[in-house]
Amino acid sequence: MKQFLLAAVMMTCCSALASAQGPARAAVERAAKPIVIQPNTMAVRATVDSFILPVKGGWFREVKGQVHVDLERPERSRFAVTVNTRAFDAGGPRYNAFLSGPAILNVAQYPEMTFVSRAMTRIDERRVRFDGNLTLRGVTRPLSVVATIAPDDRPGQARFTARGRINRLEFGIDKGYPLITAMVDFVLTTQPPAE
Length: 195
Prior knowledge:
Blueprint: H1 2-32, E1 35-37, E2 43-47, E3 57-60, E4 63-69, E5 78-84, E6 88-89, H2 93-100, E7 112-122, E8 127-136, E9 139-151, E10 158-167, E11 183-189
Antiparallel strand pairs: 1-4, 2-3, 2-11, 3-6, 4-5, 5-7, 7-8, 8-9, 9-10, 10-11
């Protein structure tokens, strides 16, 4: 009889412990799930410093590809996007024509810009670094981008912002240098402001 009671007490305690751990375990499992950023939510902003251009940046609003972030298994993560350079908006037809023309983006010959990651490194709880290759105007160069991830309430969904910087001279874009600086900052975001 004593053995039966002891077994019953142990089973009850184990059951209660499992029930108490259930929500915590579920929260950990939910947090560990990979985050996938869909392409129809992304846009890319490019900016430069310039002494001669009143417009210093614009938006690429057509971005294809996918971002897959697995914080627990970084080797499974991937950041691969293709940007339609023809869908560039600098705020007006005159600037769009100049920046899309042969001296800058040359969209007639190079209608796409791509970034493909090779590896991801976790920096902290919210930031990761993707190392990969950027191809622009037919030239491929290494590029590292640092991404900030802010998960929202929907499982597997997140707000995502990735920042990188290139030297445009390395891609054959030397128009206006040095009055237009060589360094171009890119920000890929899932929440582009209305402009």
